[in-house]
Amino acid sequence: MGKRKEYRKEGEIEKAFESAIKKVLRIMIGVHPQFGPPRPVAAISASAPLSVQVNFSEGAVGVMVLGLDQDTAAHLTEAFCCESLEIGSADFIDAISEITNMIAGNAKRNFPQGARISRPRVRIGADLEAGPLSKRPGVHLDCWTELGDLAVEYDVRFEPEDSQEETDYEVSTCG
Question: Which helix (H) or strand (E) holds 65?
Answer without folding.
Answer: strand 60-68
